[in-house]
Structures are given as C-alpha cells and as structure tokens.
C-alpha cells in the first residue's frame, strides 16, 4: 500500500473509531461508508468510496435522505477520472487536503516552550471543545468525552499564561499515530502555538514507539507542518453536494 493510501486509510479508521465510541452512526454500503453525528459538525462524511456509475446515484440518494451528510472524501485519482460525472450529479470540490508523514531522517525541532502542554483532563474537556470548535464549528462534547477514555486516543491541551489556547489529538491505529484536531484559539493564531503542540505530538508518538506518524493538512497549514519534519505524499479532496434545482 502506498504512503498516500495508508494516510487516507488512517483517517477512515479514525472515523470508524469515533462511531464505536459515541452515538455517531456508521453505515456500511457495498460502495461506500458514511458517518453522521447529529449534534456535531464533525464527523459527517461519505468516505471509503468505490466510485462508479452505480455508486454516485446511491450516494446522492443517501445525502438526500440525511441532510447533515453532504460531504464526500475522494482521492485525487478518483476526482480526476470522474470529474465530469461528479459535476453532472452536483458535486463541487470544496477543499484540498495534503497527506503527511513524518520523515524519519529529519531531526525533530525543539519546542519553543511558549506553551505548557498537558494531557486533557475531564474537567478541562469543555474548554478543549471550545477551542477545537473554533476550527471545526460545533463539536460533540459526548463524542470527545468517550474518546478521552479510549486507550487509542489521547487529547492534549496547550496553555499560555494559564489559559487553554491550543488543542491536539493523537489516534493510534496499527502502530501508526495520527495527529488530529490541531487548533489554536483565534486570538492566539500566527504566533507558532499550533506548530508547537504539533511538534509535541510528533515527539510523544515517537516516544511511545509508533512506527509511523501521519497527519492531514489544509493547504493553508501545510508549510507549518512540513517545517516540523513532515513530508507530503499526495492529496485528497472534500467535495460538497449541491442539490440540483428542480
């Protein structure tokens, strides 16, 4: 399996882990999977898609019956090969995400020590959700409460002057550690805090004997994560479905 596909599959495994540890609903279709979380903006996706002439009508029907579910994740090859068909059915590219893996030949950069980073405690979870939601809109408190007690996930909180201003989450699956939900409070962005908690997660993953450390990134944050020792291995895409006008 390519590094690119391994990174995407780790994200899909994270979705399934979320469904096993919350009220998020997982639907397994022969052509795709869906995850919906009624009280949250995330995760609500169609993923692990086998894209063809039969699956696209099924996907649009699924979305039509579940209003909260209108985003589909595809890799770049799927998008290139089916662009006309996707457009015909009302799918519009919304975001491009980079697949990242830590380059083991790179020396990890030291933290700047501007943050005090701790494992998130139950009493601080609401504050963690508040900061993380500034990057993902509303997030389910119940979902992350369950992830907090899962042995495969660890939530981290970054404090500056005793205020929780940065979040991150490590999810370990098949000895690959994925870094997710790296968010800095809007009032503290562009000061290096995101890179600091991201680097901390890289170090924690390697310290805990992960064989591989991966992440996904928007194009806006890509250079920041690459500066911490990550290397890019292709992209995947988030598409939004617009219901065709009658």
Written as H for each helix and E for each strand, in order along the chain, the element string is HEEEHEHHEEHHEEEHEHE
Radius of gyration: 18 Å
Category from helices, strands and their pairing: alpha+beta
The share of residues in extended strands comes to 25-35%
The CATH H-level superfamily of the largest domain is: Gcn5-related N-acetyltransferase (GNAT)
How many E-type strands? 11
Shape: globular
How would you sum up this structure, described in words?
This protein has 246 residues and is α+β, with helices and mostly antiparallel strands. It folds into two domains: 104 residues, Aminopeptidase (3-Layer(aba) Sandwich), CATH 3.40.630; 117 residues, Gcn5-related N-acetyltransferase (GNAT) (Aminopeptidase), CATH 3.40.630. The chain contains eight helices and eleven strands. The strands form two sheets. Strands 4-11-5-10-9-8-7-6 form an eight-stranded mixed sheet, sandwiched between helices. Strand 8 and strand 9 form a beta hairpin. The protein is globular. The chain starts with a helix and ends in a 5-residue tail after the last strand. The model has no long low-confidence stretch (mean pLDDT 93).
Quick structural summary:
33% of the residues lie in helices and 32% in strands. The chain is α+β, with helices and mostly antiparallel strands and 246 residues long.
List the helices and strands and how they pair.
Blueprint: H1 3-20, E1 25-28, E2 33-36, E3 45-47, H2 55-65, E4 71-75, H3 76-81, H4 83-88, E5 91-102, E6 116-119, H5 125-136, H6 141-148, E7 153-160, E8 163-173, E9 176-184, H7 193-207, E10 212-218, H8 222-226, E11 230-241
Parallel strand pairs: 9-10
Antiparallel strand pairs: 1-2, 2-3, 4-11, 5-10, 5-11, 6-7, 7-8, 8-9
């Amino acid at each position: 399996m390519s590094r690119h596909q391994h990174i995407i599959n780790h994200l899909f495994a994270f979705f399934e882990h979320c469904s096993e540890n919350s009220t998020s609903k997982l639907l397994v279709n022969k052509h795709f999977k869906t995850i919906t979380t009624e009280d949250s903006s995330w995760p609500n996706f169609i993923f692990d898609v086998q894209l063809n002439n039969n699956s696209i009508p099924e996907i649009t029907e699924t979305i039509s019956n579940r209003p909260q579910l209108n985003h589909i994740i595809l890799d770049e090859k799927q998008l290139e090969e089916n662009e006309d068909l996707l457009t015909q059915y009302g799918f519009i590219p919304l975001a491009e995400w980079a697949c990242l893996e830590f380059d083991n030949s790179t020396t990890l950069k030291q933290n700047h020590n501007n943050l005090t980073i701790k494992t998130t405690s139950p009493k601080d979870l609401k504050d963690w959700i508040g900061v993380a939601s500034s990057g993902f809109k509303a997030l389910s408190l119940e979902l992350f409460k369950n992830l907090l007690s899962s042995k495969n996930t660890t939530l981290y909180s970054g404090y500056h002057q005793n205020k929780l201003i940065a979040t991150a989450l490590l999810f370990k699956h098949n000895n690959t550690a994925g870094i997710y939900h790296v968010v800095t409070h809007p009032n503290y962005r562009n000061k290096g805090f995101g890179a600091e908690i991201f680097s901390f997660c890289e170090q924690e993953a390697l310290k805990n004997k992960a064989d591989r450390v991966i992440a996904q990134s928007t194009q806006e944050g890509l250079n920041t994560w690459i500066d911490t020792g990550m290397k890019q291995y292709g992209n995947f895409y988030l598409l939004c479905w617009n219901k065709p006008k009658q």
